[in-house]
Fold this sequence. Notes:
Layout: H1 2-13, H2 17-68, H3 71-74, H4 78-91, E1 95-101, E2 107-110, H5 131-139, E3 143-149, E4 156-165, E5 171-180, H6 181-189, E6 198-203, E7 208-212, H7 215-218, H8 229-232, E8 236-240, E9 246-254, E10 258-265, H9 266-269, H10 271-285, H11 287-291, H12 294-318, H13 333-398, H14 405-428, E11 438-440, H15 442-457, E12 461-467, E13 474-476, H16 478-495, E14 500-511, E15 522-531, H17 538-541, H18 561-571, E16 575-581, E17 585-593, E18 617-621, H19 625-637, E19 641-645, H20 648-657, E20 662-666, H21 675-685, E21 690-695, H22 699-704, E22 713-715, H23 720-733
Parallel strand pairs: 12-14, 18-19, 18-20, 20-21, 21-22
Antiparallel strand pairs: 1-2, 1-5, 3-4, 4-5, 6-7, 6-10, 8-9, 9-10, 11-13, 14-15, 15-17, 16-17
Amino acid sequence: MSSLLSRLLLLVAAAMLPAIAIQAYNEIDLRRTREVEVEDEALGLAKLAAAELQQIVQGVRQALIALSEVPAIKAKDVQGCNTYLSRIKRRYPEFISFIVVDLNASAFCSSFTEHKVAPIVHKLASATGRAYFANAVRTGKFTVGEFAIGRNTGRNVLQFALPFYDDEDHMGGVVIASLSLDWLADDIAKKGVPQGAALAITDRNGICLARHPDNDLFVGKKLPAGKDPMLDNGTVADMVNIDGVERIVGFSAVGEDLLVSFGLGKTQSFTKIEHRTQRDVLFIAMSALIVLILTVWGAQRFIQRPFAQLVDAANRWRLGDFGRRVDIRGNSELARVASAFNAMADALKHREHELSEAREQFYQSQKIESVGQLTGGVAHDFNNLLTVVSANLELIEAGDDIGKARHFAAAARRAVDRGAKLTAQLLAFSRRQVLNPKPVDATQLVSEFQGLIRNAVGEACRIKVQGDDGLWLCHVDPALLQTALLNLALNARDAMPDGGVLEIEMANIVVNEGVVAGCLPGSYVRLSVRDTGVGISPEVLDRVFEPFFTTKEVGKGTGLGLSMVYGFVRQSGGHVAIESTLGKGTAVALYLPKATQKPDAEMEDVRPQAMPVGSERILVVEDNDDLLDITSTMLTQSGYQVRCARSGTEALRMLQTEGFDLLLSDIALPNGVNGIEIAREARRLNKGIRVLLASGYAGDVLERHKAAGEFPLIDKPFRMSELAARLRSILRDG
């Protein structure tokens, strides 16, 4: 208690003079801090406005690039050029005109021509003497002009220029776009400039292009600051403008040609500080009265309030709110207790975070596994349907009295083959499809596939393909690699709504231990797809490979594209890496394993051969009635003696009472007994019986029963001729 009493007495004795000194210092420091804050705010607002202006300039640049590639302009087709520019002018009313001049600065077409009954040709002023024209011709690059009054319109404009080239890559002239400064003034007036503030845009000579407020009083006049965009960029100045208002002004340049200034009025910015200073003076005057109650305040401050914080924190932690902390500073006994409480809360919060992450990972793995099982089941049922369709079409095609129906049946069978490929793609994202890997020349595959990619992404996206000389062969399924490449190209297109560059790069790479996270050491062919789109935020980037995760609008994306790419590459023994920066674009790199063997010669398409025949007894087990019927019909027509069973239980009963030369069974069957169990029981009852199992997807069942390689297997959908050939081979060779 003596320690507490001593503190209370010291507080009473020291309350007056030190309090006044500290308060005065705080006022000075607060004003200085506020001034820095206002400077930072002015500079930040200037940079924000400059960034928006930069987007406008970039949009003009992209528009001029597009115009420079118009065939009518490159060929100097006056009528076609006038028509095109007039249409562009109507689409973009913020531009006063579009003009195309030759290297002598003489205009040969413009947007001033209106097409009604016949073109009305205006006499156009030349670009002679315009600095932007000379600079564009000299540098061959996009050029930003300065404040000007249009020679054709007499209106205030800011002109932009870009050279164009003819088909022989010779400079043919310059495309000029004149941006209305009235439109620019209206645009910055919509920025929500605070009261007393001012936003202005000047050219490289310090001439005002647009300003808010009072645009009409300033446009075309030289402002007292901001003469050189490069020198004034990023600076802040305290100045009085020609309207007599004192402001703190921040400057931010747009390239080397334009300067944005944003000024915050000092009166408005420091009003709160002035009011606070007045209140503080009153507070200091009344501080003598406060001395009378310091003793009571001291008791509350050092005893009652700390205990209240400890009790409140303990109650919050009891309810699971581990973010609550006790703020008791110093070296007192209560401060040490509070420090111990805070350390305990940190430990509990860390443990809770670890448990939460563990639960999230468990739920995520369950979700992905469930999606994989779902697609496996869908693929199995879909392949049953395809097998029935293919078999019926083969029977139609084999007849002699169908005529032209044979041609249509063959086309339908090719459609069935495409359906089987769709099933493989459905299985791809769950990494459960059966791959058909072979040595693939990625350069040749991309070259042959480039036309399809170009059609898919559209003309607004420019495609660049680069590849190392002597690129290794990679060991992948070529059809799935094409599908993966197309998915990446479509995602890149969606990320570049205004167009951009899609770059496909192939290179040999040897990955060492730990160089690429998650990638095993070895030799790979790296296929990178890079875009210049909007980029992906970090929180979304962590989830892009999740099945069904998409940021697109409802009906515009399934969320399976990237997960299919990931599943295919990982199942092929490779690795997928993705990097993205907001506003700059995204790059996806596929690390495809290097092939260790030479590619096989391409096999030519062989016409269907007559199905082999036989006379053996065959037991067919299939739960799909349509597939069972067509299979038994085909085998009966081929001379076999066929018995049918629709379940595993029925098949086992028939094997115990009858003799068979061969068992043909689906793997996935209802009622608990699957094809693997039937085959094993058949072998136990008859050592000489032959077995052929069929399934559209059997990965899980084979793995669960440890039956991989135990019995011959034919994948659904299969052709009847293929089935007959396999049966004949198994019966003949065992």
